[in-house]
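Ops channel
N.P.: pipeline sanity check, posting one input/output pair.
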């Protein structure tokens, strides 16, 4: 092995963790310092990214060699931003945040996703310990970006978010939290407080055996552009109405 590669391997092997998942593996890389601007101030989180693979190996050199022959840019990988002493801190706040290309990146007001992303990070930093899991294969509640665009076309013609997905042949919510929960279990064994309005997320964690001490609601950013979207979350997708929700 060339000397440079030996150095690369020695650096990376300290930061890559194998999580066995059935007959496959989740490879977790991190923590990596990630300074983020929140309300004009820089807050430093610890960033991790994970990748599911069929091959199970603890040989870091083998992992590096395999990745160079795979076009990961065409695949989606999820990650997590941890803050404070996430492993040992008491009553950590966590958010399972589904990627929203239009809301998180472009600031679209058709939904409340961009607001929830930023607000969750602020809540975690203010609380002192927690983590935001950014789930990259959850676009459009699991139908993908292209299908989400078609669903938007239907929504512009009178369909709500649920009927748009159903008429494209999908279920209302196809998201799976299995990999994120395995990563969470690797990073922390103590109870967590879940930031969500969605009881399905709460149920997924509890079903997996995670101790969820409480649920923290997150409503906001209501406008003329997303009022129907927010109402549909409550009336048809089962999201829990709280003070500050447009239903109040």
């Amino acid at each position: 092995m060339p000397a440079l590669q030996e150095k690369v391997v020695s650096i990376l092997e300290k930061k890559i963790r194998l999580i066995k998942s059935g007959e496959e593996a989740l490879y977790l890389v991190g923590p990596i310092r990630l300074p983020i601007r929140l309300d004009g101030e820089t807050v430093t989180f610890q960033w991790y990214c994970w990748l599911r693979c069929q091959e199970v190996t603890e040989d870091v050199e083998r992992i590096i060699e395999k990745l160079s022959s795979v076009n990961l840019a065409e695949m989606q990988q999820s990650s997590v931003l941890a803050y404070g002493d996430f492993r040992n801190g008491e009553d950590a706040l966590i958010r399972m945040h589904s990627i929203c290309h239009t809301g998180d990146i472009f600031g679209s007001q058709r939904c409340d996703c961009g607001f929830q992303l930023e607000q969750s990070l602020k809540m975690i930093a203010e609380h002192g310990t927690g983590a935001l899991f950014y789930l990259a294969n959850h676009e459009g509640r699991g139908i993908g970006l292209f299908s989400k665009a078609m669903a938007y076309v239907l929504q512009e013609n009178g369909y709500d978010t649920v009927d748009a997905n159903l008429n494209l042949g999908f279920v209302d919510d196809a998201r799976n939290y299995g990999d994120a929960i395995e990563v969470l279990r690797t990073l922390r064994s103590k109870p967590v407080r879940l930031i969500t309005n969605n009881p399905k997320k709460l149920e997924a964690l509890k079903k997996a055996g995670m101790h969820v001490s409480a649920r923290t609601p997150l409503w906001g950013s209501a406008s003329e552009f997303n009022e129907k979207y927010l109402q549909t979350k409550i009336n048809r997708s089962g999201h829990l109405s709280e003070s500050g929700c447009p239903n109040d």
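N.P.: looks fine end to end. The domain at 30-46+77-138+175-235 is CATH 3.40.50.10990 (Rossmann fold).
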